[in-house]
Amino acid sequence: MCELGYRLRQAREEQGLELAQLAERLKVRRAILEALEECRYDELPEPPLARGYLKRYAQALGLDPKPLLMLYPASPAPTPTDELPPQSRIPTRTPRSSWLWVLPVLALLGGGVFWWYSARQGHSNEATPTTQVAPVVKRVVLRVNTEPAGARVYLDGFLLGNAPIQAPVEVGERVLRVEAQGYVPKQQTLNLFADQNLTVRLEAVKPSPAPPNTSPQSTPQPSANTLVLRIEQPSWIRVTSLDGRQLYEGIAPAGTQLTYPLPVNVRTGNAGGVRVIVQGQDQGLMGAVGQVVQRRFDSPPTSNP
Fold it and tell me: For residue 91, is the peptide bond before it cis, meaning its omega torsion is within 30 degrees of 0?
């Protein structure tokens, strides 16, 4: 297995994910992901499209796609050309006494060679197999406007850009998510089989009522039993309780903040993009960029009276 495929498979297996799960999440055929992991580049579509699949697959695993794209070959190896047929050997010298019978023989040989060459050319034209062309993935145009304008638009967890936006996307069932600071995120499933023009309206977040007898000058203190995950780079994250209940799983975009009561288990595919704050204290990043890390965060010990 090549280095590219090894990195993809290692990251997937460390996260306990199956190819079928990722194929469903990315809305691509499982055979494409298998070909990437096994470095069977001849079974992938044209390089620009195959590199796009590789980038999406790496991001789904929480990996930085740039070093993986550098490992992808720029072009397939050239196919060697067919060998030309060997030339017929013609005697270069003939005794003078043989001229009378050599001329008819040469004429017969010439006719035979002409017939053989013509027949071979016809057979070659009929028997030469056509070059297999990779299937072209059908695309449609997705246009998204938002209220308020400038909201972030995600498709299958990947950032398309800020609205208004227009992008060519693959057909199929896709998940659209729209987010904006101060507004409730909105998510919906789209069946993209034709061009679509959408307008998504977000609702403003309603301010929480102030608790009674609270001074306006006071500032809320972080809970002593709280874990905060601040996402500085897009990262795949899974948060579970100690009894195995899943509290969160997905690719969190940069700028996201996740808060959970302790104790919890946290697993990420890009530890260098996740900052940990426990009991209000910044404990730094979970690890290096692209590193898969799992940690348990326990509740603070209770003091005896």
Answer: no
